[in-house]
Each structure stands twice: as C-alpha cells, then as structure tokens.
From TrEMBL:
Pfam families: HNH (PF01844). The lineage of its organism: Bacteria, Pseudomonadati, Pseudomonadota, Gammaproteobacteria, Pseudomonadales. GO terms for molecular function: endonuclease activity; nucleic acid binding; zinc ion binding. This is HNH domain-containing protein. It comes from Pseudomonas fluorescens. InterPro entries: HNH, HNH_nuc. Residues 39-89 form the HNH domain.
Amino acid sequence: MNLLIPIHATQPVRRTDISIKSKYTAYKVDLRTDFLKKCGYCGTADYYSGGQRGFHIDHFAPKIKFAHLINEYKNLVYCCPICNLGKSDDWPGDDPKTSFLNDIGYVDPCLPLYLDHIARDKSGQIVALTNLGKYIHTKLKLNLKRRQICWLLDKMESQLQILDKIIAEDEENLELLKAFRLVTKQYLEHIGILKSE
C-alpha cells in the first residue's frame, strides 16, 4: 500500500472576520496569513516564487464569469502563479456555487473535501486520488517536477533542523554526524536542481 501524504500539512482556513476592502488585491496580506504562506492548490511555499510579491490571488469562481464576486474574500485563494495561470477562468458551468460537475471542475482548497482528491506520495509527487482529482491535477499542472523538489527541500530543511538540535546535545555521536552529512548532501543536490530550472 502506498503511503499518501495530505497536500496540506495544515488545512488553510479563511477567516470570516476580515474587514471589507475596496479592492481584492488589498486582501493579499490576509490571504497569505490564512493560507499559511503557501499555495492553496499545490501547497508550495510562497518563497519559491518570490514571496508575497510573486504570489497571485485566484478568484475561485472566476471574476470574468462572476463579477459580483470580484471582492468577496471567501472566493479568493492565495496561490502560486503556475496554479493561477493553469486554472485561469476555467469553471464547469454558470453557477458560482457549483464548482464541479461530475469529474470536471474544482474543489475549494479550504474545504476538507479537497484532501479527498489530491495528495502527495512518499517521494513528494502530487497525485490524483479521483477522476475529479485528475482534472484538477491536469489543469493546475500539478505533475511539474518543481512542486516535488520544493516539497523535498522543505522536508529536508526540517530534518536538518532536527538533526542539528540532536547533534548539539551530543556532539560525540559519530553516527548522528554521518546522518547529518548525508541529509546535508541531499539537500544541496536538491537545491542545485531547483536553481538550474
């Protein structure tokens, strides 16, 4: 059985007490907080795309089709440029409340239901779990190697921090030093791949 990892370590939750702003772009700081500085769709941290400045605001129900929702906070998703451009104005129908019909459309990434359709395998690749998940996976280009590499880098950084703390407590443990070196080497290899894109 394959080990699957939720796309979000912590599910993003849009706050409901955000004061109304005059333009949807003014919500970016709030969205960044609610989405934990990660893309709502693929879970990639915003620093891989230049931070807040490089990230986009997606209108879940597209603004071109549903202009009355252009400034509706609960319709906004903090996302990476790749996911935003992939989804673009795609929508399965004429009702903003119906985000998918059969196996076509999208699930709001703030809903627990999102995790039923998209996950990561143990290598960090994003995989579709359902036919609707396949649609989302294809449209948002969730198969890009970049997404896996970013996830691996974050995972390795976390491991490096844990090992560093353990080594600091017992500097004479040779096996821990060897493990630390190995993880550091892998981390630098992954960084090299990311920088070469």
